[in-house]
């Protein structure tokens, strides 16, 4: 989050960049009695993502756990980014990063854009789920003396990868949740929204 009273930025999937998903994880599958009194097993459909670059690594982890992910591509939720850029070259980027530190912005409140080529080289001063919050951040950084900042739709024209795990039985759902989140690049299993 930016210094002072700036609004808190939404975290992203891959670094400065990566959109992060905020839906709650799906409930573990259970069984319910059928009309005859016999238990009918229910299944979950869970997904991981969005991923920009790490989906192959995560797929390998899931396969090793006995799971069979299906790769799907979809546009991630809309996000607004306060951007300085795109800049002419890497040298200008380095100078701009130094200038932001010089005027007193905390280093945790800005970062070079690394996963949205259309905005590179550039500097993200926050990513937000609403335009109103992004506009508030823009006003804040301009008050600090930042020039050249403007609002962009971070995910416009961007397609991310999701790993979908359909028809998981209760044992498979438990196996998924026992995997170290770091090996999933800190994405938690969520109810499927990607077809």
Task: Write a brief caption for the model.
The chain is an alpha+beta fold. It has helices at 55-64, 90-102, 131-143, 170-177; strands at residues 31-33, 39-41, 44-51, 70-74, 80-84, 111-112, 123-128, 149-153, 160-168, 190-191.
Question: How would you describe this protein?
Answer:
By secondary structure, the chain is an alpha+beta fold. Helix content is 23%, strand content 25%. The chain has four helices and ten strands; from the N terminus they run E-E-E-H-E-E-H-E-E-H-E-E-H-E. Strands 4-9-3-10 form a four-stranded antiparallel sheet. Strands 6-7-5-8 form a four-stranded antiparallel sheet. It has a two-stranded antiparallel ribbon with strand order 1-2. The radius of gyration is 20 Å and the shape is elongated. The two termini are 33 Å apart.
Q: Beta fraction of the residues?
A: 15-25%
The largest sheet has its strands arranged as 4-9-3-10
What structural class do you assign from the helix and strand content?
alpha+beta
Shape: elongated
Helix content: 10-25%
- The ordered H/E elements are EEEHEEHEEHEEHE
Mean pLDDT: 81
pLDDT below 50 for ≥5 consecutive residues: which ranges?
1-41
Count the DSSP helices: 4
Largest sheet: 4 strands, antiparallel
DSSP strand tally: 10
């Amino acid at each position: 989050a930016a210094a002072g009273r700036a609004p808190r930025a939404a975290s992203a999937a891959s670094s400065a960049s990566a959109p992060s998903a905020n839906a709650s994880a799906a409930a573990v599958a259970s069984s319910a009695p059928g009309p005859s009194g016999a238990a009918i097993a229910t299944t979950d459909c869970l997904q991981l993502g969005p991923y920009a670059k790490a989906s192959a690594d995560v797929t390998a982890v899931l396969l090793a756990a006995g799971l069979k992910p299906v790769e799907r591509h979809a546009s991630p939720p809309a996000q607004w980014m306060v951007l300085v850029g795109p800049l002419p070259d890497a040298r200008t980027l380095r100078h701009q990063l130094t200038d932001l530190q010089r005027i007193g912005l905390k280093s945790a409140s800005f970062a070079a854009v690394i996963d949205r080529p259309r905005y590179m080289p550039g500097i993200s001063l926050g990513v937000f789920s609403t335009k109103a919050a992004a506009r508030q951040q823009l006003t804040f950084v301009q008050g600090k003396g930042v020039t050249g900042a403007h609002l962009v739709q971070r995910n416009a024209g961007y397609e991310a990868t999701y790993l979908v795990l359909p028809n998981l039985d209760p044992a498979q759902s438990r196996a998924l949740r026992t995997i170290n989140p770091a090996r999933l690049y800190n994405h938690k299993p969520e109810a499927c929204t990607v077809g």
